[in-house]
Amino acid sequence: MTDAFSETPARPLVPEAGLPSSAAAPEVGIALPAQSQWRDVWRQFRSHKGAVTGLAFLLLITLFCAIGPWLWPVDPGDLDVRNKDVRPIYHVIWDAEAKTTWAHPLGSDQLGRDQLASLIAGGQVSLAVGWTAMLLALVIGTLVGVLAGYFRRLDGLLMRFTDLVLALPLLPLLLVMMLLFRDALRAAFGPETGIFILIVSAIGLTSWMHTARIVRGDVLALKEREFVLAAKSIGTPARRMIPRHILPNVMSPIMVSATLGLAAAIITESALSFLGLGFPSDFPTWGKLLFDSTDRMADFPERVIWPGLAISLTVLSVNYIGDGLRDALDPRIRGR
Amino acid sequence: MLTYTIRRLLLAIPTLLFIALVVFLLLDLAPGDPLADQPLTIPPEVREEMRRALGLDQPAYVRFGLWLYQFFVVEPKVLIDHIFGTSLAAGDARVISWQFKLPVMDVIVQRMPQTLWVVGSAYVIGVLIAVPIGIVSAVRQYSILDQIGTFISMVGFSVPTFFTGVLLIVIFSVQLGWFPSIYDTQLVVDDWHSFLMQLRQMAMPVFVLALFNAAQISRYMRASMLDNLTQDYVRTARAKGMDERVVVLRHVLRNSMIPVVTVVALGVPTVFGGAIITEQVFKVNGLGQLLITAIHANDLPMVQTLTFIFAVLIVLFNLIADVLYGMLDPRIRYD
Q1: Angle formed by the axes of helices A191-205 and A170-189, to 10°?
Q2: How near does any CA of chain B get to the CA of A101, in Å?
Q3: Selection from A7, A186, A128, A251 nearest residue B157 by Cα
Q4: Helix (H, G, I), strand (E, B), or coil: what is residue A295?
Q5: Which of A130, B49, B155, B260 has its CA 20 to 30 A from that of B238?
Q6: What distance in Å separates the CA atoms of residue B123 and residue B263, rounded to the nearest whole number?
Q7: Considering only CB atoms, which chain B residues are within 8 Å of A270?
Q8: What span, in angstroms and rounded, lies between the C-alpha atoms of B335 and B330?
């Protein structure tokens, strides 16, 4: 998890149009200075095959979870008692005797719940947890990083605190946190919302440190640049300087750590569910579906494989997007 | 270097004390009752008596102080007694697990070999696989080998261990029946047959963990080799007419190993943490599984001690990584 962070470009984006583009096509670089940067980034991103495939797959699976309930209007909690333990429909190909029905194309579990509907509902929860936890971690990390980098007085304090949190054994603490606050939040917000809030905040609070460190380093370097000095000398106060000049220039490391954070959050959520400390049992997430099926995986391997594939492919595509983004946002690589 | 090490060691003490306090306060907030699994027929006054026997009637700072005293004074004494046969700790109360009614450290020492065997060998194998893959990937950049290597490391890095583990069980123990799906900790290795048994039951958990570790480390190795291959000294070495093998294996490899060695050191404690899931999948009763059962059973002394040991490992290996970095790279000066 940690290695990818340190590979992120240590230097910020060039605020003007990228050097390589103007070198390659001088007349275009002069005519369209404002547009060319993001167009360059997109062109470089498109040339990374893995990243484009990853982006396509992520969009596809998000769409699948978002509009799935309309395409397949079956309630995942519905108990179809007559059709328990139905095998997936493709099973007929090698085993004509298998119990299959078009009513459950991916089969059903030991209580007769439809697996396709569970997969859709589980995907919605897993992706929602991943995105919100990642955004939370990003906001905290960026805040701490910018404050520590920009204000020298806060630097020592905030960075010592970051180092301290990094030294905590996070997975055990996550497990303990889940156990501690589960009942309190469940009582306050209801079983599903309560656990959602708990998981999101637990993951967010334990994964902001790398973003904070990277952002701080970049802000420290940016502060020495001429355009910041120029802005400062015309009297720009910090509250305008940070959103206008600092934040846009640290967007690239933030975006790269966003992709890594999304992948890590999805894995952490499913790991928690897998260890039995995630969402309640009748509430499907991909990790939960996988965990519930491990007891009978000898007879019904497909119930383990589908949610596992969903988690793995989503994380894989997000990681590829991160790789492509890192290359695309690095001005040293972009012109090649 | 020595002053730096000593300063870092001194600085580690308040850090660790703070972590111990955080863990203690978190656990102290726990709503769970450690007597919840006792029969309901126990009369309230006996229940009160049991709580007092566990020390739960004391205020939090007394219990924290007691735990610190037991962990840092009594347990080392027990260790010295054990090694030299003295009796320094005679009569001192040790940290007792509520779940097993045994000293926490004894249970941990019992569980340690399983974790060390499985996790330790997985880490060593992972590093041994990762280094050659990283070298080949970097030297033959964008070749077929590089593409395959990067793809496998990406997959190993993305697929969670609980899925690879379950998948291996489905394929190799359910379909093919080659390996047992459950790790038998009762197995005593005393002859060739039982040794083969041990190897077979270790194969799958070790493979899962080794793949995960190798994926991470080979990415580092590749990036570090690529950084070094474009350096001026490499061009000089080639210009002198040196053999490509010598250039890569002697000059580039040794310089590229510097950041990788620190990464390997930094990864050791996270392996203990990450192994919690793998141990759960293969039912290896090591430290990770001990932690999970202790959390479920509200065994607070056990959770406190184990979490603290993990924290000690993290702080210690952070220090080792920094010191190694300074020793291997003479350009790095901390003082």
Answers
A1: 150
A2: 24
A3: A7
A4: helix
A5: B260
A6: 12
A7: 160, 162
A8: 12
CB contact B13 to A (< 8 Å):
no
The position carrying tokens 């609070």 is A205
Residue A311: closest CA among B162, B271, B218, B210: B162
Closest alpha carbon to A205 in A195, A197, A213, A217: A197
Structure tokens at A117: 């509907």
Domain locations in chain B as residue ranges: 18-84, 105-328
Distance of CA B179 to the CA centre of its chain: 25
How much is the pLDDT for A15? 43
Report CA torsion sign: B254, B259, B262, B266. negative
**Secondary structure (DSSP) of B137-150:** HHHTTTSHHHHHHH
What was the pLDDT predicted at A131?
92
DSSP string, A226-242: HHHHHHHHTT--HHHHI
Calculate how close chain B gets to A237, using CA atoms only, in Å: 36
The CA radius of gyration of chain B, in Å to the nearest whole number, is 24
Whether the predicted pLDDT of A29 surpasses 50? no
Q: Which residues of B touch A184 (CB under 8 A)?
A: 31
Global confidence as pTM = 0.81
> Which residues partner with A238 through β-bridges?
none
The CATH number of the domain covering residues in B105-328: 1.10.3720.10
Q: What is the pLDDT of residue A115?
A: 81
| SS3 readout for A262-315 | HHHHHHHHHHHHHCCCCCCCCCCCHHHHHHHHHHHCCCCHHHHHHHHHHHHHHH
Cα separation, B97 vs B22, whole angstroms: 20
Least Cα distance to A53 among A318, A326, A335 occurs for: A318
State the helix-helix crossing angle for A152-166 and A115-150, rounded to 10 degrees: 140
As a whole number of angstroms, the distance between CA B260 and CA B273 comes to 20
Complete domains list, chain A, with CATH? 57-73+113-329 (1.10.3720.10)
List CB contacts (< 8 A) between B213 and chain A.
none
